[in-house]
């Protein structure tokens, strides 16, 4: 449970924070729920039952020629995305990690990517929702996450979205 993912946004009054809840079984997220109370958006999924956005079934977008990527507001401010910005139609800085995963799973962006470490409680619910929306989530070394292991920090960052989009961005970042 992450009671406020996007604490900075919550404090600043930016409506890009969320409540994130997941259930893990044998290292795999099997239920995920993300709720943004300021926008009344609910993202949910359970294993083998699909992903939903406000009760409508959703899928990750198919890869477009020029994609929309959701990235961290702080990473943009630090200039971490400067060298990659010409590879995307739009780099959209958004607050909460969980919220970005929900938006990506619901087809509102092609990809979510982070170049900085994240805690597993930030991404676990979103990982389930992405998986059930037909996408995948990997770290920047190409590994899928196994939850409730000793190490809770995902380093150095991660990518999530449609399988082809994830593979394309993975190659871009690691080139």
Structural features, described:
This protein has 175 residues and is of the alpha+beta class. The protein has five helices and 13 strands. It has helices spanning 7-12, 73-77, 97-105, 120-132, 163-173, and strands at residues 2-5, 18-25, 28-36, 41-46, 51-53, 56-58, 68-72, 90-94, 111-114, 118-119, 135-139, 153-154, 158-162. The strands form three sheets. Strands 1-2-3-4-5-6 form a six-stranded antiparallel sheet, with helices on one face. Strand 2 and strand 3 (28-36) form a beta hairpin. The longest helix has 13 residues, at 120-132.
Task: Briefly summarize what is shown.
The protein has helices spanning 7-12, 73-77, 97-105, 120-132, 163-173; strands at 2-5, 18-25, 28-36, 41-46, 51-53, 56-58, 68-72, 90-94, 111-114, 118-119, 135-139, 153-154, 158-162. The protein is of the alpha+beta class and 175 residues long.
Protein topology:
Layout: E1 2-5, H1 7-12, E2 18-25, E3 28-36, E4 41-46, E5 51-53, E6 56-58, E7 68-72, H2 73-77, E8 90-94, H3 97-105, E9 111-114, E10 118-119, H4 120-132, E11 135-139, E12 153-154, E13 158-162, H5 163-173
Parallel strand pairs: 7-8, 7-9
Antiparallel strand pairs: 1-2, 2-3, 3-4, 4-5, 5-6, 9-13, 10-12, 11-13
Helix pairs in contact: 3-4
